[in-house]
């Protein structure tokens, strides 16, 4: 569910910054293609980790946010980050 180059980073951005529009996410990742970002967002939505809200406007407005399931992963992300920082501190290269 969180495999893929950008999924964890997308979830982290939504957890720390809240609701984001597509282009806001795109600016956060300058090296990602529109196709890749769209695919990653669709997979996260399909897995129930994010919500996609479409507003009937012209031009279309789409917002992404963490679902309750996605929010429940955030403490796990923090633990992984903590482990990684401790590992790097104890194993310098």
Describe the structure.
The chain has one domain: Winged helix-like DNA-binding domain superfamily/Winged helix DNA-binding domain (Arc Repressor Mutant, subunit A, Orthogonal Bundle), CATH 1.10.10.10. The model has no long low-confidence stretch (mean pLDDT 92). It has 93 residues and is an alpha+beta fold. The chain has helices at residues 7-17, 22-28, 34-46, 68-90; strands spanning 20-21, 50-55, 61-66. A three-stranded antiparallel sheet has the order 1-3-2. A hairpin with a 5-residue loop joins strand 2 and strand 3. It has four helices and three strands; from the N terminus they run αβααββα. Keywords: DNA-binding, Transcription, Transcription regulation.
